[in-house]
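PROTOCOL LOG
Step 1. Enter all chains and additional molecules of the complex.
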Amino acid sequence: MANHSQLGFQDASSPIMEELIQFHDHALMVALAICSLVLYLLTLMLTEKLSSSTVDAQEIELVWTILPAMVLITLALPSLRILYMMDEINEPDLTLKAIGHQWYWTYEYTDFKDLTFDSYMIPTADLPLGHFRLLEVDHRVIVPTSSTVRVIVTADDVLHSWAVPSLGVKTDAIPGRLNQTSFFATRPGVYYGQCSEICGANHSFMPIVVESAPLPNFEHWSSSLSS
Amino acid sequence: MAGEGDSEPGKSFKLLGFLDVQNVPCARESVLYGSLGSLVMGLGHFLATSRVRRSCDVAVGGFICTMLGYWFYCRYNLAQQRIRQRMLKEGMKNRVLFEGSYLDPEKEQTGSERGDS
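Step 2. Run joint prediction.
Step 3. Record the structure below.
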Protein backbone atom coordinates (compact mmCIF):
# COMPACT_ATOMS: atom_id res chain seq x y z
CA MET A 1 0.00 0.00 0.00
CA ALA A 2 1.04 3.62 -0.27
CA ASN A 3 2.57 5.39 2.71
CA HIS A 4 1.23 8.73 3.81
CA SER A 5 2.34 11.60 1.55
CA GLN A 6 3.83 9.11 -0.93
CA LEU A 7 4.16 10.60 -4.43
CA GLY A 8 6.02 7.85 -6.26
CA PHE A 9 4.96 4.39 -7.33
CA GLN A 10 4.53 1.54 -4.89
CA ASP A 11 7.08 -1.26 -5.09
CA ALA A 12 6.45 -3.47 -8.09
CA SER A 13 5.03 -6.94 -7.54
CA SER A 14 4.71 -7.99 -11.17
CA PRO A 15 7.09 -7.89 -14.14
CA ILE A 16 4.91 -5.39 -16.02
CA MET A 17 4.98 -2.96 -13.13
CA GLU A 18 8.76 -3.32 -12.93
CA GLU A 19 9.00 -2.38 -16.60
CA LEU A 20 6.63 0.55 -16.10
CA ILE A 21 8.75 1.89 -13.25
CA GLN A 22 11.91 1.53 -15.38
CA PHE A 23 10.24 3.44 -18.22
CA HIS A 24 9.03 6.12 -15.82
CA ASP A 25 12.59 6.64 -14.57
CA HIS A 26 13.79 6.86 -18.17
CA ALA A 27 11.12 9.42 -19.05
CA LEU A 28 12.02 11.52 -15.99
CA MET A 29 15.70 11.56 -16.97
CA VAL A 30 14.78 12.80 -20.45
CA ALA A 31 12.50 15.39 -18.80
CA LEU A 32 15.40 16.51 -16.58
CA ALA A 33 17.61 17.04 -19.63
CA ILE A 34 14.91 19.06 -21.38
CA CYS A 35 14.17 21.14 -18.27
CA SER A 36 17.88 21.90 -17.85
CA LEU A 37 18.05 23.13 -21.44
CA VAL A 38 14.90 25.19 -21.13
CA LEU A 39 16.05 26.77 -17.85
CA TYR A 40 19.38 27.70 -19.42
CA LEU A 41 17.73 29.21 -22.50
CA LEU A 42 15.30 31.10 -20.29
CA THR A 43 18.18 32.55 -18.30
CA LEU A 44 19.91 33.56 -21.54
CA MET A 45 16.80 35.26 -22.90
CA LEU A 46 16.29 37.20 -19.70
CA THR A 47 19.85 38.49 -19.67
CA GLU A 48 20.19 39.32 -23.36
CA LYS A 49 19.13 42.45 -25.17
CA LEU A 50 16.39 41.73 -27.67
CA SER A 51 17.25 42.10 -31.34
CA SER A 52 15.06 42.04 -34.43
CA SER A 53 17.89 41.82 -36.92
CA THR A 54 17.59 38.06 -37.53
CA VAL A 55 16.16 37.37 -40.97
CA ASP A 56 17.39 33.87 -41.62
CA ALA A 57 17.58 31.09 -39.03
CA GLN A 58 18.01 27.86 -40.91
CA GLU A 59 20.32 26.26 -38.36
CA ILE A 60 18.06 26.82 -35.36
CA GLU A 61 15.06 25.64 -37.37
CA LEU A 62 16.89 22.42 -38.13
CA VAL A 63 17.90 21.97 -34.51
CA TRP A 64 14.45 22.45 -33.06
CA THR A 65 12.97 20.04 -35.59
CA ILE A 66 15.46 17.21 -35.27
CA LEU A 67 15.97 17.40 -31.51
CA PRO A 68 12.28 16.97 -30.58
CA ALA A 69 11.99 14.15 -33.10
CA MET A 70 14.89 12.35 -31.39
CA VAL A 71 13.32 12.94 -27.98
CA LEU A 72 10.04 11.48 -29.18
CA ILE A 73 11.76 8.42 -30.60
CA THR A 74 13.67 7.96 -27.34
CA LEU A 75 10.40 7.92 -25.44
CA ALA A 76 8.22 6.11 -27.96
CA LEU A 77 10.35 2.99 -28.47
CA PRO A 78 10.40 1.74 -24.86
CA SER A 79 6.80 2.84 -24.42
CA LEU A 80 5.58 0.79 -27.37
CA ARG A 81 7.66 -2.15 -26.20
CA ILE A 82 5.85 -2.17 -22.85
CA LEU A 83 2.49 -1.60 -24.52
CA TYR A 84 2.90 -4.70 -26.66
CA MET A 85 4.32 -6.62 -23.70
CA MET A 86 1.12 -5.91 -21.78
CA ASP A 87 -0.97 -7.32 -24.65
CA GLU A 88 1.05 -10.50 -25.09
CA ILE A 89 -0.96 -13.67 -25.49
CA ASN A 90 -0.32 -15.79 -22.43
CA GLU A 91 -2.00 -18.88 -21.11
CA PRO A 92 -3.45 -17.96 -17.74
CA ASP A 93 -3.39 -20.50 -14.96
CA LEU A 94 -6.45 -19.01 -13.33
CA THR A 95 -9.38 -16.91 -14.45
CA LEU A 96 -11.08 -14.59 -12.02
CA LYS A 97 -14.11 -12.43 -12.58
CA ALA A 98 -14.42 -9.12 -10.78
CA ILE A 99 -17.84 -7.49 -10.84
CA GLY A 100 -18.28 -3.96 -9.54
CA HIS A 101 -21.37 -2.96 -7.63
CA GLN A 102 -22.35 0.08 -5.64
CA TRP A 103 -20.31 -0.17 -3.45
CA TYR A 104 -18.53 -3.51 -3.24
CA TRP A 105 -16.86 -6.05 -5.47
CA THR A 106 -17.96 -9.58 -6.28
CA TYR A 107 -15.38 -12.16 -7.24
CA GLU A 108 -16.01 -15.41 -9.05
CA TYR A 109 -13.63 -18.32 -9.42
CA THR A 110 -15.40 -20.64 -11.86
CA ASP A 111 -12.49 -22.58 -13.37
CA PHE A 112 -12.97 -25.69 -11.28
CA LYS A 113 -15.80 -25.09 -8.83
CA ASP A 114 -18.33 -22.31 -8.58
CA LEU A 115 -16.75 -20.06 -6.00
CA THR A 116 -18.36 -16.66 -5.55
CA PHE A 117 -18.06 -14.13 -2.77
CA ASP A 118 -18.57 -10.44 -2.11
CA SER A 119 -15.84 -8.15 -0.86
CA TYR A 120 -16.93 -5.26 1.32
CA MET A 121 -14.72 -2.68 2.97
CA ILE A 122 -14.34 -3.17 6.72
CA PRO A 123 -15.77 -0.05 8.38
CA THR A 124 -13.35 1.91 10.54
CA ALA A 125 -15.38 1.17 13.67
CA ASP A 126 -14.92 -2.59 13.13
CA LEU A 127 -11.27 -2.43 12.06
CA PRO A 128 -8.90 -4.50 14.21
CA LEU A 129 -5.90 -2.69 15.66
CA GLY A 130 -3.02 -2.30 13.22
CA HIS A 131 -5.08 -2.81 10.08
CA PHE A 132 -5.28 -0.24 7.32
CA ARG A 133 -8.15 2.22 7.40
CA LEU A 134 -10.38 2.33 4.28
CA LEU A 135 -8.30 -0.42 2.63
CA GLU A 136 -9.13 -3.67 4.40
CA VAL A 137 -11.94 -5.90 3.18
CA ASP A 138 -13.83 -8.77 4.69
CA HIS A 139 -12.96 -11.24 1.89
CA ARG A 140 -9.69 -10.86 0.01
CA VAL A 141 -8.94 -12.06 -3.50
CA ILE A 142 -6.48 -14.91 -3.09
CA VAL A 143 -4.29 -15.80 -6.06
CA PRO A 144 -1.38 -18.21 -6.38
CA THR A 145 2.11 -16.71 -6.57
CA SER A 146 4.12 -16.98 -9.79
CA SER A 147 1.01 -17.83 -11.81
CA THR A 148 -0.57 -15.88 -14.62
CA VAL A 149 -4.01 -14.76 -13.52
CA ARG A 150 -6.59 -13.48 -15.99
CA VAL A 151 -9.11 -11.04 -14.57
CA ILE A 152 -12.37 -10.34 -16.37
CA VAL A 153 -13.80 -7.10 -15.11
CA THR A 154 -17.33 -5.87 -15.46
CA ALA A 155 -19.93 -3.96 -13.51
CA ASP A 156 -23.48 -4.44 -12.49
CA ASP A 157 -24.76 -0.88 -12.26
CA VAL A 158 -22.47 2.07 -12.98
CA LEU A 159 -18.88 2.52 -14.08
CA HIS A 160 -16.18 1.25 -11.72
CA SER A 161 -12.50 0.47 -12.19
CA TRP A 162 -10.52 -2.42 -10.75
CA ALA A 163 -7.05 -1.15 -9.91
CA VAL A 164 -4.09 -2.58 -7.99
CA PRO A 165 -1.09 -0.24 -8.41
CA SER A 166 1.67 -2.58 -7.27
CA LEU A 167 0.57 -5.20 -9.81
CA GLY A 168 0.33 -2.59 -12.57
CA VAL A 169 -3.34 -3.28 -13.19
CA LYS A 170 -6.16 -0.84 -13.82
CA THR A 171 -9.17 -1.93 -15.83
CA ASP A 172 -12.50 -0.20 -16.24
CA ALA A 173 -15.61 -2.05 -15.13
CA ILE A 174 -18.36 -1.18 -17.59
CA PRO A 175 -21.90 -2.53 -17.36
CA GLY A 176 -22.67 -4.86 -20.24
CA ARG A 177 -19.01 -5.23 -21.24
CA LEU A 178 -16.28 -7.67 -20.28
CA ASN A 179 -12.79 -6.22 -20.06
CA GLN A 180 -9.86 -8.55 -19.72
CA THR A 181 -6.53 -8.01 -18.04
CA SER A 182 -3.89 -10.28 -16.59
CA PHE A 183 -1.13 -10.10 -14.04
CA PHE A 184 1.66 -12.23 -12.64
CA ALA A 185 2.41 -11.82 -8.95
CA THR A 186 6.11 -12.49 -8.53
CA ARG A 187 6.15 -12.70 -4.74
CA PRO A 188 3.74 -13.54 -1.94
CA GLY A 189 2.13 -10.57 -0.27
CA VAL A 190 -0.95 -8.46 0.15
CA TYR A 191 -1.62 -5.78 -2.45
CA TYR A 192 -4.12 -3.00 -2.02
CA GLY A 193 -6.04 -0.99 -4.55
CA GLN A 194 -9.09 1.22 -4.73
CA CYS A 195 -11.96 1.76 -7.14
CA SER A 196 -10.69 4.15 -9.79
CA GLU A 197 -13.83 5.40 -11.49
CA ILE A 198 -16.29 7.70 -9.77
CA CYS A 199 -19.33 5.65 -8.94
CA GLY A 200 -21.37 7.45 -6.33
CA ALA A 201 -21.31 8.38 -2.69
CA ASN A 202 -19.12 5.50 -1.50
CA HIS A 203 -16.73 5.41 -4.43
CA SER A 204 -13.80 5.84 -2.03
CA PHE A 205 -14.99 3.00 0.18
CA MET A 206 -14.87 -0.06 -2.06
CA PRO A 207 -11.23 -1.15 -1.95
CA ILE A 208 -9.57 -4.13 -3.59
CA VAL A 209 -7.23 -6.45 -1.72
CA VAL A 210 -5.29 -9.12 -3.60
CA GLU A 211 -3.39 -11.65 -1.53
CA SER A 212 -0.78 -13.66 -3.36
CA ALA A 213 -0.10 -16.95 -1.63
CA PRO A 214 1.90 -20.08 -2.52
CA LEU A 215 -0.09 -22.61 -4.50
CA PRO A 216 -0.72 -25.09 -1.64
CA ASN A 217 -2.14 -22.25 0.48
CA PHE A 218 -4.32 -21.13 -2.41
CA GLU A 219 -5.62 -24.65 -2.93
CA HIS A 220 -6.36 -25.02 0.76
CA TRP A 221 -8.21 -21.72 0.81
CA SER A 222 -10.29 -22.47 -2.28
CA SER A 223 -11.24 -25.94 -1.08
CA SER A 224 -12.18 -24.60 2.36
CA LEU A 225 -14.33 -21.90 0.80
CA SER A 226 -16.07 -24.18 -1.64
CA SER A 227 -16.88 -26.74 1.03
CA MET B 1 21.15 -0.55 1.30
CA ALA B 2 22.55 -1.45 4.67
CA GLY B 3 25.92 0.03 5.48
CA GLU B 4 25.94 2.31 2.47
CA GLY B 5 25.90 6.09 2.99
CA ASP B 6 24.24 8.02 5.76
CA SER B 7 20.82 8.54 4.17
CA GLU B 8 17.86 7.32 6.21
CA PRO B 9 15.67 4.74 4.53
CA GLY B 10 12.71 6.43 2.82
CA LYS B 11 14.40 9.84 2.44
CA SER B 12 15.13 10.93 -1.10
CA PHE B 13 16.63 13.92 -2.82
CA LYS B 14 14.68 15.01 -5.89
CA LEU B 15 16.56 16.98 -8.51
CA LEU B 16 14.39 19.82 -9.82
CA GLY B 17 11.69 18.40 -7.58
CA PHE B 18 10.97 15.26 -9.57
CA LEU B 19 14.00 13.05 -10.22
CA ASP B 20 14.83 10.91 -7.20
CA VAL B 21 18.61 10.58 -7.72
CA GLN B 22 19.13 8.43 -4.64
CA ASN B 23 16.67 5.66 -5.38
CA VAL B 24 16.61 5.55 -9.18
CA PRO B 25 19.35 3.24 -10.50
CA CYS B 26 21.98 5.04 -12.61
CA ALA B 27 20.49 8.51 -11.89
CA ARG B 28 23.10 9.65 -9.39
CA GLU B 29 26.03 8.56 -11.55
CA SER B 30 24.47 10.15 -14.65
CA VAL B 31 24.08 13.52 -12.96
CA LEU B 32 27.56 13.40 -11.45
CA TYR B 33 29.25 12.38 -14.69
CA GLY B 34 27.17 14.98 -16.50
CA SER B 35 28.37 17.67 -14.11
CA LEU B 36 31.97 16.55 -14.52
CA GLY B 37 31.65 16.50 -18.29
CA SER B 38 30.04 19.92 -18.25
CA LEU B 39 32.89 21.34 -16.18
CA VAL B 40 35.60 19.79 -18.30
CA MET B 41 34.09 20.77 -21.63
CA GLY B 42 33.09 24.27 -20.58
CA LEU B 43 36.41 25.04 -18.93
CA GLY B 44 38.35 23.49 -21.76
CA HIS B 45 36.48 25.52 -24.36
CA PHE B 46 37.04 28.71 -22.39
CA LEU B 47 40.73 28.05 -21.98
CA ALA B 48 41.01 27.39 -25.70
CA THR B 49 38.89 30.27 -27.00
CA SER B 50 38.40 32.76 -24.11
CA ARG B 51 34.77 33.13 -25.15
CA VAL B 52 32.57 33.15 -22.09
CA ARG B 53 29.15 32.95 -23.70
CA ARG B 54 30.03 30.16 -26.08
CA SER B 55 31.81 28.26 -23.29
CA CYS B 56 28.62 28.37 -21.21
CA ASP B 57 26.69 26.98 -24.15
CA VAL B 58 29.26 24.19 -24.53
CA ALA B 59 29.09 23.48 -20.81
CA VAL B 60 25.31 23.10 -20.82
CA GLY B 61 25.42 21.02 -23.98
CA GLY B 62 28.14 18.89 -22.46
CA PHE B 63 26.12 18.36 -19.32
CA ILE B 64 23.08 17.17 -21.26
CA CYS B 65 25.04 14.96 -23.66
CA THR B 66 27.24 13.38 -20.98
CA MET B 67 24.34 12.82 -18.62
CA LEU B 68 22.13 11.23 -21.25
CA GLY B 69 25.02 9.29 -22.76
CA TYR B 70 25.96 7.69 -19.44
CA TRP B 71 22.29 7.15 -18.65
CA PHE B 72 21.70 5.08 -21.80
CA TYR B 73 24.91 3.12 -21.26
CA CYS B 74 24.11 2.37 -17.60
CA ARG B 75 20.47 1.47 -18.27
CA TYR B 76 21.48 -0.84 -21.10
CA ASN B 77 23.89 -2.67 -18.77
CA LEU B 78 21.23 -2.75 -16.06
CA ALA B 79 18.71 -4.27 -18.47
CA GLN B 80 21.21 -6.95 -19.50
CA GLN B 81 21.92 -7.70 -15.83
CA ARG B 82 18.21 -8.05 -15.08
CA ILE B 83 17.77 -10.43 -18.00
CA ARG B 84 20.69 -12.53 -16.76
CA GLN B 85 19.19 -12.54 -13.26
CA ARG B 86 15.86 -13.75 -14.61
CA MET B 87 17.53 -16.48 -16.66
CA LEU B 88 19.54 -17.55 -13.62
CA LYS B 89 16.43 -17.65 -11.44
CA GLU B 90 14.55 -19.65 -14.06
CA GLY B 91 17.50 -22.00 -14.45
CA MET B 92 17.77 -22.59 -10.72
CA LYS B 93 14.04 -23.28 -10.50
CA ASN B 94 14.20 -25.68 -13.43
CA ARG B 95 17.19 -27.46 -11.98
CA VAL B 96 15.42 -28.08 -8.70
CA LEU B 97 12.28 -29.14 -10.56
CA PHE B 98 13.83 -31.53 -13.04
CA GLU B 99 16.76 -32.92 -11.05
CA GLY B 100 16.91 -36.68 -11.49
CA SER B 101 14.17 -36.80 -14.11
CA TYR B 102 14.55 -37.42 -17.84
CA LEU B 103 14.41 -33.66 -18.41
CA ASP B 104 17.51 -33.05 -16.27
CA PRO B 105 20.07 -31.43 -18.65
CA GLU B 106 22.98 -32.70 -16.51
CA LYS B 107 21.71 -36.24 -16.94
CA GLU B 108 21.78 -35.81 -20.75
CA GLN B 109 25.40 -34.65 -20.57
CA THR B 110 26.38 -37.60 -18.38
CA GLY B 111 24.61 -39.95 -20.77
CA SER B 112 26.44 -38.54 -23.80
CA GLU B 113 29.81 -38.82 -22.00
CA ARG B 114 29.07 -42.47 -21.22
CA GLY B 115 28.18 -43.00 -24.89
CA ASP B 116 31.47 -41.44 -26.08
CA SER B 117 33.58 -43.57 -23.78
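Step 4. Note key features.
Chain B is about 70% helix and 5% strand.
The helical segments of chain B are 27-49, 52-98, 105-116.
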